[in-house]
Amino acid sequence: MPEIKALVFDAFGTTVDWRSSMVQHLEAFGKKTSLPPDTDWTKFAQEWRTGYMVNTKSISQGGPGPLNTDKLHRQLLEDLLMKPEWKHIADAWDESIRDEITFAWHYLKAWPDVVQTLRKLKEKYIITTLSNGNMRLLIDMAKHADLPWDAVLSAEMFGAFKPAPQPYQSTLQHLSVAPSQCVMVAAHLFDLKGAAAHGMRTVYVNRPDEDPPVDTGKERVVVKVGAEWNAKGANKSVGGGEEFAVDAIVDSFEDLVEVLEIMK
């Protein structure tokens, strides 16, 4: 196989812990607006995120909706606040508060294993994020979470959300690497399948509660570990259902360093 030149990382869930970060933000806004302390902010954050995943998938397939994540998050917040369960929040949050909490998605903390590992990988590879988040969001996120990207690539720049072909094809073009020289690293199978369709190599990061994000009630796609990592006896798989092979599955970014040495 050709030498690996570039690593392309998903953002939400893969490099940053959106769930605990948003719950913390929501709790702060709840106190600020005198909402009941027993408000289920974890459920609220999950419903907001699920709406995002459902809509980006639909838009990637040609459905209606904005390609700017800030605009999409804001629309989804309005939809969420129309539900009877969250009426008490809707009554407490005026337009300015709703705008402010929407931008909390810009300020998510990195998973503990991410920053130092990225700095180490940066010494050897091009490292970039490729996310459905809009450009300003990804820049703010990188600054807040201290993510040391060589470049920030937003699907918004390429006119389509992942897993449409354009983000992967354009990333390879802008990085001037062959697909086999590029590894997509993500905690979502749909993203890895999209990258693999264009010849990119793939590593699945097993983050808690990230898959399946949308297809409730369906079996999760199986992830088969590629031959390189299997050679070390790490026979892992995730979920059940349709089979889909990746080059490796890792439980942390620390494992990623070792996996890449084996893959090259």
TrEMBL record:
Q: Which CDD domains match?
A: HAD_L2-DEX
Answer yes or no on keyword Hydrolase: yes
Keywords in alphabetical order, please.
Answer: Hydrolase
GO MF terms here are:
hydrolase activity, acting on acid halide bonds, in C-halide compounds; phosphatase activity
Q: Cross-referenced InterPro entries, in alphabetical order? A: 2-HAD, HAD-like_sf, HAD-SF_hydro_IA, HAD_sf, PGP-like_dom2, S-2-haloacid_dehalogenase
* Domain of life of the native organism: Eukaryota
Coiled-coil zones: none
> What is stated as this protein's family in its record?
Belongs to the HAD-like hydrolase superfamily. S-2-haloalkanoic acid dehalogenase family.
NCBIfam families assigned to the protein according to its UniProt record, in alphabetical order: HAD-SF-IA-v2, HAD_type_II
Protein's recorded name: Haloacid dehalogenase
Classification of source organism: Eukaryota, Fungi, Dikarya, Basidiomycota, Agaricomycotina
